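Morning. Coffee machine broken again, so started the prediction first thing and wrote up yesterday's gels while waiting. Chain of 308 residues, entered below exactly as on the submission form.
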Amino acid sequence: MRSLPRPAIACLLGALSGWLTPPAVGQNLLVNPEFDGSVASWSGLSKAEWIADDDVDGCGAAAPFSGSAETGSVVPDVASYSGLQPDLCLNVSPGETVWTEMAAISPHPWAPFPAYYEGDDCAGTPSPLQSEVVFPASAAWARRSASLTVPSGAHSMRVLWAAVDEAGSAFLTRWDRAYLGAAERIFTDGFEVGRVCRWSASLGADISPPTTPGPISSPSHDGGPAASPLHVSWVGSVDTGGSGLAGYRHRFSTSADPGSCNDTIPVVYGGAGAISAVFAGTWYVFVCAQDHAGNQSEIAVGGPWVVQ
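Came back before lunch.
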């Protein structure tokens, strides 16, 4: 069990106000749990910024107001902490179970840290923050859930989600798709299991990737070495999984190694694409297609082309 030092969260807990009575089973209590357009109704231990082009469901490119939250770290003792908390106090009863869920990208282990109060509306001094479960670090989006049992004597609570580095390094953590409720979230469709971007017209479970884009051609350099810029275009992909084609990710490189689709620049183009590079050298371009559910195609390779 991991505890957070009181100085790290005293000001944060004292500054947050407001509460909601328990809703119907399965309802999310949180305001702005998807970080749509801002980090409003949330506070960070350090900075808390909105990230527009990164979303747990791959929605960032499909909808301009879908994003995630990014928090910096603080070092109140030997360890460093990066986390955020909703502006929510929840009135509860001893023995009650509260369900929580969060998605995160974190270089260090992370967990939900509940703080309990003897009075209603989070009045008085909070209990020490202790995690009942710890989730491992993850370089990609990882969604985790946990149940929290309200201890004897507690009548209200807050929850802080935080990552911890015992060595005290500075680091960033990203958060998305938060949930806090009186029951575990029920995975009834593709939206709830995270396979479908909620901005998509389809809520079916799309697990089929788009076709590979291409062939890739260069109107400016297919005939041989030429001056910059290098103009590149490709034949568009087709998505048949139901969520629809979101667009394309691309990367120019002087290496023939295509890497992965997630290595490419996170800019999405609708329809068949056309992009340019401007520096002299021998160039390749790598393009992959992405649908609204986040499925990605194989990588198409174009080149080499010589830019003089």
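The domain at 3-181 is CATH 2.60.120.260 (Jelly Rolls). Going to sketch it on the whiteboard this afternoon.
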